[in-house]
TrEMBL record:
This is EngB-type G domain-containing protein. The keyword Magnesium applies. Residues 87-169 form the EngB-type G domain. The lineage of its organism: Eukaryota, Fungi, Dikarya, Ascomycota, Pezizomycotina. GO terms for cellular component: mitochondrion. Pfam families: MMR_HSR1 (PF01926). One of its GO terms (molecular function) is GTP binding. InterPro entries: EngB_GTPase, G_ENGB_dom, GTP-bd, P-loop_NTPase. Keywords: GTP-binding, Magnesium, Metal-binding, Nucleotide-binding.
Amino acid sequence: MAGVKSAANTVKTLLRAAERPPQIPGTKLTASTPPTQLDLFDYCFYYDTLAPTPQQLQHSADVFRASNHSPIQMWTASEFRTIPMSDMPEVTFLGRSNSGKSSLLNAIMEKSMCYTSAKLGRTTTLNAYGIGGKKGGEAKVVLVDTPGYGKGSDEEWGEQIIKYLTKRK
C-alpha cells in the first residue's frame, strides 16, 4: 500500500510541476512576475553549437518538404543481408512497439508513406525512404523505419535490427 501512495504522490508532484510556467535560465520567478510569452527558442538550449540560422532552418525545411520526387520508398528488408548497399546517410528510428515511429516519419515526410496501425507489431520489416531528392537526382538522406521492440514484437526482428546497427557502413 505504501508503494501505491508513493506512486500517487509522485504523479501529483509531476502534475503540479507541469502546471508551473517554464523558467527561463538566468531569471527568477516571483509571485509578482508577470506571465511571459515564450517561443520555441526559449525551450531550446545549445551548449555545444550555435542555434541554427534562418538559412539553415530553411534548407532543412526544403530537404524534408514533400515533392513529386521525394519522399520515395528506397527498399524494404526482412533480413539484413538483403539490404542494398548505399553511400547515402541513413537515419534510423528505433523504439518500442506502437510508440509512433511510423507516424513520426509520416509527419516528417509530410506524406503517408509508412503503414500505421493501433495494433502492435504493424511494421515487420526495415523500411527505407529517401528524402530531399530533386528531378533527375537521388535522395539526399534515407530515413529507416524499424519494427518496434517489446510487446508484440518478434525476436528475429531484434536480431536483424542489431545486425543493421552494428554492420551497416
